[in-house]
Here is the input.
Amino acid sequence: MTGATWSEIDLASKVWTVPAGRMKAGREHRVPLSTRAGEILKEAAKLRESDEPTAHLFPSSRRGQPLSNMAFKQLLVRMGETGFVPHGFRSSFRDWCGECTPFP
Here is the structure.
């Protein structure tokens, strides 16, 4: 999600559409957004530094660039949490979804 832009988010339909060019499979991917995710995005929109549709949801301090994929790892390091990797969080969440919810 670090590369997501505001043009990909449809708050009215509660959908994030990832373009094919950013997907490993080369196909557009649509992600339903929960009500809470929509609320958070509406709050985040108030903090936007640019009204450009291509502006990133999670901008870097480098103008026009998305937040680095290393940002979360660096946060864990600063917190002293060195036994984890960001991919593990995604993988754990995916496993939980598959095992404890009706969603694939």
About this structure: The beta strands are 9-10, 15-18, 29-32.
